[in-house]
Backbone:
């Protein structure tokens, strides 16, 4: 089977001022000496593409891409544009922390053509930000949004709910403050305690007590209702957009299409092969500097695994999966791939099936993570 060349590219910048207690991303702190070597390694890794690959969406994630100085940011943008020129009507997103954004960095991003900023705002409440070990303030979120607006860069806000001790009304206030800023897009995530993080250890020692499951459900449903009232389209489990502002880059992942990626811990999917680079920034650097592949894991997906993944990603979208287009995309019917499982979840009220389309119900949305293993 031949795969069309990817039309999306991801770049991972692992630097952060501090590792937040809940974070399990590929992050490195207190190693400013590695910033320049990393930029050089990214350029080297890109050069292994051999020929520039044009894309429709480009995404700088982290870590914190805006940890870089304005000069370093400019250099990174220029190198990326050299290897991944952008097509007409592109989407170029950069993740940022409200505390790092100043007018100089925004100016560089705007001049280079970035048109979307994903702001790790998380909350507007001081106690919650402190609890999450975030070092920005509500005022810095507002000024970051204002800076973007001045240069015409669109904004997506990330918000976390269900932090220990949080009440429903505190969460609603966070949502209302986010809505008042009129972002184009909002992503909301319930706080998770991942093995290996500080929060996981604190959970084991009962220093942190998670909110009750019932309250977390209420918080999620309240977000769905409030954001819908404010004109946001709930288009994926955790994502809400004003009309025309869905994340096209993330839609690449959810639709099972390929994507390029560079940087430590970055995952790419090219020609039906999924590869993930070494998560350790120092290992990544050493290997690239020695001219060795930075890939730590590689998996060639067979047709049925690809179809199962497409099924799970498709169900994450609120519009669900349309039977005919799924078969055209994967070569499998939903019935042969997962007919019994679908029936079971329809009977349990987790999925709705009108014969043409299968999608999560409101109840299914609340427990979706526990459904996926059944399909994979
Ligand atoms: S700022 Fe973001 S990426 Fe960096 S440590 Fe905190 S949660 Fe992780």
Residues:
């Amino acid at each position: 089977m031949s795969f069309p060349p990817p039309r999306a590219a991801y770049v991972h910048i692992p630097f952060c001022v501090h590792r937040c207690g809940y974070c399990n991303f590929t992050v490195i702190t207190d190693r400013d000496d590695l910033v320049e070597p990393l930029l050089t390694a990214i350029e080297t890794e890109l050069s292994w593409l051999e020929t520039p690959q044009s894309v429709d969406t480009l995404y700088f994630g982290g870590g914190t891409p805006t940890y870089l100085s304005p000069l370093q940011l400019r250099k990174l943008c220029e190198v990326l544009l050299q290897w991944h020129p952008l097509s007409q009507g592109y989407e170029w997103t950069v993740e940022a922390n409200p505390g790092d954004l100043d007018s100089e960095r925004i100016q560089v991003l705007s001049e280079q053509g970035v048109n979307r900023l994903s702001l790790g705002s998380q909350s507007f409440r001081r106690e919650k930000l402190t609890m999450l070990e975030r070092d920005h303030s509500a005022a810095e979120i507002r000024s970051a949004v204002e800076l973007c607006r001045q240069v015409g860069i669109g904004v997506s806000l990330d918000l976390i709910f269900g932090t220990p001790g949080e009440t429903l009304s505190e969460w609603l206030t966070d949502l209302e403050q986010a809505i008042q800023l009129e972002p184009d897009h909002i992503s909301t995530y319930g706080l998770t305690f991942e093995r290996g993080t500080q929060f996981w250890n604190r959970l084991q020692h009962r220093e942190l007590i998670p909110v009750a499951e019932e309250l977390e459900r209420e918080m999620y449903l309240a977000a769905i209702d409030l954001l819908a009232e404010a004109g946001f389209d709930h288009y994926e489990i955790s994502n809400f957009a004003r009309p025309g502002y869905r994340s096209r880059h993330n839609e690449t992942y959810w639709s099972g299409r390929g994507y390029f990626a560079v940087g430590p811990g970055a995952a790419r999917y090219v020609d039906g092969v999924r590869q993930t680079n070494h998560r350790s920034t120092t290992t990544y650097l050493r290997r690239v500097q020695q001219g060795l592949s930075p890939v730590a894991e590689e998996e060639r997906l067979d047709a049925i695994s690809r179809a199962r993944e497409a099924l799970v990603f498709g169900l994450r979208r609120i519009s669900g999966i349309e039977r005919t287009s799924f078969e055209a995309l994967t070569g499998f019917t939903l019935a042969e791939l997962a007919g019994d499982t679908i029936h079971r979840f329809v009977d349990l009220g987790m999925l709705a099936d009108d014969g043409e389309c299968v999608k999560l119900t409101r109840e299914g949305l609340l427990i979706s993570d526990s459904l996926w293993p059944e399909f994979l």
